[in-house]
């Protein structure tokens, strides 16, 4: 005898432990299986793009901190690159190297959180999360040393950096870079071959190569699907063309591949930092740029490889002290577009880990 | 006055005689009273200890400190938590089934306490030496599932309902391999009474029944909903699972029941597989305590390390892996007991371990976990 | 999906967690144990020098939040602006430090203190007297002033604090 069943609607979020902010998934369930999903966002909308139009070019930098608050340095970098392109400002070599170091440290920190939160979504009771936060803490310490704050760094300036790094920065960084591989090895021992993680993440939430490209995915999510696409390689900014590093890719495009790609990215970032530390020249860290700049009327788009994907800033100038229009190409938002296709047909538990493996920050999605 | 009731307190507080004491020594009611008090004190005290051990031990494994403010080493933290929780407002959802919502914590907690009636703390020191001890344990331990289901149903919360459904599915499935694993022990000991089983363990049954132990440990963890099978309070998915809508004393009861179940599993494993109160030098009750805490530490340790399995993988593990292995284990044990009853137990240890390794390796090749995506 | 490694992966993970049991914890207990903050910390207060300030209000113009209020009067005798009111509402301040960087006379500093929790919102408004460097009560941070940074205690770093190998 067939029992009469009916699907029911479950609101996952906006207040839920695993939605990484205030995201809401309106899931239609048939038992445990998700048969319909409607992502709802906008709970964290602060109008940052509009606010940017009322501020001076320099005053927007603190706002960009608040986009992806787990990767403030990358946001700063993308924005100042856009302004420099718009106004045609050159940056001293030392500042470029320091920017590379900061951006790569930020990538490591963000990947650690991404992986830690992903494993937490899989149900590990905070252990990998806390181990990874320990390593992130070391990076945050370094950022605190150079910029004075631990989350919203506001360190990059138009034409360089706010200040040179203090003397004790490079010894500490060197120590960190030498320590880190051993800790990555520890994560690998803890997680890489864990049968339960394999069973949970392998083959789950597959995103095909074709679909990933068509939906303009970027970052680790795209690379896990097997596309060798990294802005640092295909359109080098700063001094990335002088470093040797690989672009790790996955083969299947499942949750496990996304986790593996992120861990490999950490290794590559360490490699870049090591090379940058050897090559860094001395000199000024900020070119002579006035506090208020009047870029010539026009538009500019600059993009970087942020931890979550391609982060771009599109600026339009009307030759005043504030941007006429500022648009953010937020990787988190773009990467969410395939969420529905990836989740449908899987169970609630899979939905949570697929969502976790995309790694979004709501500050960037809603802006 | 005391003499009127025929109580011989001396017999309780001095070491008990090595041979099994007669039924209801010292009069039925006094025996009942003394052991009830002992059991409640033991369970509540050890549950507090477990909460402390779990929070501190887990914290240290996660490179943090854990609660260390209340009392020396934070030992009084569970007491402080209990007081906090007792003073909280009892919130009942508007659409809840009020009576069931009120009854659920009681139904979940009471059976767990009842199980300890048959667990021997040392030779003969137990509330009731039932000759069907294991049957009683198996029967009573399933009742608390009802409490959890009642909680999930009565809260009128979708998360709670999902958690309750998962729990019922898991417990019904895991009951079978767990009971079959226990039967192996019963065959070896030749008795259903827990005290007799402990007495039969010249060498701990974990060595004679390694596969049975493995199955029982996995199945037991699933039945008491400990990680990696803690699907019904999966905090990253179902918020708090079945007790999402419970607060105050009712929540405390669930919390207590959860740890009391962990205590019961540790005690049963210590009794059935680790030779219970037997052990050299130290007094028997201390041996028993040490073994319980040791088993519980392993449970904490596993909880710290592993992620959670998916619901279909949980079911597949029960039906495709544990159940057939438990049947094979039962048959092998029966053959061993029947064919070579006089064989040296020491000779059986390597044989049994070899059988376990072969079976686990072989069966891992044979079955598939879960089926992944469902086409909709 | 099969159990490919027969539990070896989980066993490996168990060795990692048990090893941590015997390591020192990373956390510190804040009110008793205090780590030194960065020498450049942008604490949640501002320190202002009455003597150096000329009342040019560059800081107020630079502030992205517009929380610096400055009122000046003309001092004809000294041939300069007299700062009548200098007020920062730290409740709206985002501690970005742009005001400090923009000050042409080096009269504004970020504060070194970071524990300025108050019970009421209006208590967060810092007045002229409250933030005066000359009163000697406020310690300016080394943000944008390397000569002040050199005097401050060295920052505690986790990379140096943890000596145990992974």
General description of the model:
The complex is a heterotrimer of chains A (367), B (376) and C (166). Chain A is of the alpha+beta class. Chain A contains 15 helices and 8 strands. Chain A has one domain: Cytochrome-c3 Hydrogenase, chain B (Orthogonal Bundle), CATH 1.10.645.10. In chain A, helix 3 runs antiparallel to helix 4, helix 4 runs antiparallel to helix 5 and helix 11 runs parallel beside helix 14. The radius of gyration of chain A is 21 Å and the shape is globular. The N terminus of chain B is likely disordered. With 376 residues, chain B is mostly helical. Chain B has one domain. In chain B, 65% of the residues lie in helices and 0% in strands. Chain C has a domain of 92 residues: Alpha-Beta Plaits (2-Layer Sandwich), CATH 3.30.70.3270. Chain C has a 3-stranded antiparallel β-sheet with strand order 2-3-5. A two-stranded antiparallel ribbon of chain C has the order 1-4. Chain C is elongated and about 85 Å long. The chains are: A alpha+beta (367), B mainly alpha (376), C alpha+beta (166). At the A-C interface, helix 2, helix 5, helix 6 and helix 7 of A face helix 1, helix 3 and helix 5 of C.
Outline of this structure?
The complex is a heterotrimer of chains A (367), B (376) and C (166). By secondary structure, chain B is an all-alpha fold. Chain B contains 14 helices and no strands.
Report, as a whole number of angstroms, the end-to-end distance of chain B: 75 Å
Unreliable residue stretches of chain C: none
Specify the number of helices of chain C: 5
Could you tell me the strand content of chain C as a percent range?
A: 15-25%
Q: Which chains share the greatest interface? A: A-C, 49 and 47 residues
Strand order of the largest sheet of chain C: 2-3-5
Uncertain spans of chain B, ≥5 residues at pLDDT below 50?
1-21
Major pleated sheet of chain B:
none
What global shape of chain C is seen?
A: elongated
**What fold name goes in the CATH topology slot of the domain at 46-137 in chain C?**
Alpha-Beta Plaits
* DSSP, total strands of chain C: 5
Give the termini separation of chain C.
32 Å
> What is the level 1 CATH name of the domain at 46-137 in chain C?
Alpha Beta
Instruction: Compute the CA-based radius of gyration of chain B.
Output: 22 Å
Order of helices and strands of chain B: HHHHHHHHHHHHHH
Mean pLDDT of chain B comes to 80
Overall shape of chain B: globular
Number of helices of chain B: 14
């Amino acid at each position: 005898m067939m029992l009469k069943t009916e699907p029911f609607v479950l609101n996952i979020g906006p207040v839920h432990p695993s939605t990484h902010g205030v995201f809401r998934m309106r899931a239609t369930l048939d038992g445990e299986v998700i048969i319909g999903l409607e992502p709802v966002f906008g709970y964290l909308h602060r109008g940052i793009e509009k606010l940017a139009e009322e501020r001076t070019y320099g005053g927007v930098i603190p706002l960009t901190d608040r986009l992806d608050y787990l990767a403030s340095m990358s946001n700063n970098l993308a924005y100042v690159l856009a302004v420099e392109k718009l106004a045609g400002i050159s940056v001293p070599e030392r500042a470029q190297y320091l920017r590379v170091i900061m951006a790569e440290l930020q990538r490591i920190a963000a990947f650690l959180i991404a992986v830690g939160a992903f494993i937490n979504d899989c149900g590990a009771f905070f252990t990998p999360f806390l181990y990874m936060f320990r390593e992130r803490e070391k990076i945050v310490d370094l950022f605190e040393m150079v910029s004075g704050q631990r989350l919203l760094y506001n360190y990059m300036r138009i034409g360089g950096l706010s200040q040179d790094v203090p003397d004790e920065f490079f010894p500490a960084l060197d120590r960190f870079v030498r320590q880190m591989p051993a800790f990555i090895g520890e994560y690998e021992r803890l997680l890489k071959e864990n049968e339960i993680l394999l069973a949970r993440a392998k083959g789950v939430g597959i995103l095909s190569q074709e679909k990933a490209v068509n939906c303009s995915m970027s970052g680790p999510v795209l690379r896990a699907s097997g596309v060798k696409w990294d802005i640092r390689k295909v359109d080098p900014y700063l001094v990335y063309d002088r470093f040797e590093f690989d672009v790790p890719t996955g083969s299947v495009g499942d949750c496990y591949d996304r986790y593996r790609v992120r861990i490999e990215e950490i290794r590559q970032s360490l490699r870049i930092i090591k090379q940058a530390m050897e090559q860094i020249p001395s000199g000024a860290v900020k070119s002579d740029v006035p506090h208020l700049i009047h870029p010539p009327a026009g538009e500019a788009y600059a993009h970087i490889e942020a931890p979550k994907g391609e982060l771009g800033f599109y600026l339009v100038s009307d030759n005043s002290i504030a941007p006429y229009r500022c648009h953010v190409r937020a990787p988190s938002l773009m990467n969410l577009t395939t969420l529905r296709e990836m989740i449908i047909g899987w169970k609630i538990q899979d939905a949570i880990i697929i969502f976790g493996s995309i790694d979004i920050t709501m500050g960037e999605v809603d802006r | 006055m005391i003499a009127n009731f025929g109580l011989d307190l001396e017999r309780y507080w001095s070491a008990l005689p090595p041979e099994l004491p007669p039924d209801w020594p010292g009069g039925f009611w006094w025996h009942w009273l003394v052991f009830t008090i002992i059991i409640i004190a033991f369970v509540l005290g050890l549950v507090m200890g477990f909460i402390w051990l779990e929070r501190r031990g887990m914290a240290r494994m996660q490179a943090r400190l854990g609660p260390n403010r209340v009392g020396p080493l934070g030992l009084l933290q569970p007491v402080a938590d209990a007081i906090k929780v007792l003073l909280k407002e009892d919130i009942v959802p508007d659409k809840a089934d009020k009576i069931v919502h009120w009854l659920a914590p009681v139904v979940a907690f009471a059976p767990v306490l009842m199980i300890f009636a048959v667990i021997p703390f040392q030779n003969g020191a137990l509330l009731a030496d039932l000759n069907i001890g294991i049957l009683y344990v198996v029967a009573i331990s399933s009742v608390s599932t009802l409490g959890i289901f009642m909680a999930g149903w009565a809260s009128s919360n979708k998360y709670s309902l999902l958690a309750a459904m998962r729990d019922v599915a898991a417990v019904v499935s895991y009951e079978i391999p767990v009971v079959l694993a226990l039967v192996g022990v019963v065959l070896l000991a030749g008795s259903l009474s827990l005290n007799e089983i402990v007495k039969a363990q010249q060498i701990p049954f974990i060595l004679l029944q390694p596969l049975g132990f493995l199955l029982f440990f996995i199945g037991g963890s699933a039945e008491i909903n400990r990680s990696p099978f803690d699907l019904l309070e999966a905090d990253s998915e179902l918020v708090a699972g079945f007790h999402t809508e419970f607060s105050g004393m009712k929540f405390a009861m669930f919390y207590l029941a959860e740890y009391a179940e962990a205590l019961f599993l540790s005690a049963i494993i210590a009794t059935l597989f680790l030779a219970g109160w037997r052990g050299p030098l130290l007094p028997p009750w201390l041996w028993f305590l040490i073994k319980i805490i040791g088993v519980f530490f392993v449970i904490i340790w596993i909880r710290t390390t592993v992620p959670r399995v998916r619901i279909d993988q949980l079911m597949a593990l029960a039906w495709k892996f544990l159940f057939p292995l438990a049947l094979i284990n039962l048959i092998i044990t029966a053959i061993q007991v029947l064919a070579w009853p006089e064989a040296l137990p020491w000779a059986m240890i390597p044989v049994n371990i070899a059988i376990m390794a072969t079976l686990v390796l072989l069966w891992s090749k044979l079955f598939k976990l879960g089926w992944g995506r469902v086409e909709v | 999906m099969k159990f490919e490694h027969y539990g070896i992966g989980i066993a490996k993970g168990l060795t990692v967690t048990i090893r941590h049991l015997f390591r020192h914890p990373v956390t510190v207990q804040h009110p008793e144990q205090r780590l030194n903050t960065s020498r450049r910390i942008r604490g949640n207060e501002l320190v202002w020098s009455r003597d150096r300030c000329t009342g040019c209000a560059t800081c107020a113009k630079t502030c992205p939040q517009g929380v610096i209020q400055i009122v000046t009067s003309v001092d004809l005798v000294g041939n300069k602006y007299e700062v009548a009111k200098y007020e920062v509402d730290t409740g709206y301040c985002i501690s970005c430090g742009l005001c400090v960087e923009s000050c042409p006379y080096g009269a504004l500093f970020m504060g070194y203190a970071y524990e300025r929790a108050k019970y009421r919102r209006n208590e967060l408004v810092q007045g002229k007297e409250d933030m005066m460097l000359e009163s000697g009560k406020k310690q300016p941070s080394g943000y944008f002033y390397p000569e002040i940074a050199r005097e401050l205690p060295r920052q505690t770093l986790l990379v140096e604090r943890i000596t145990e190998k992974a």
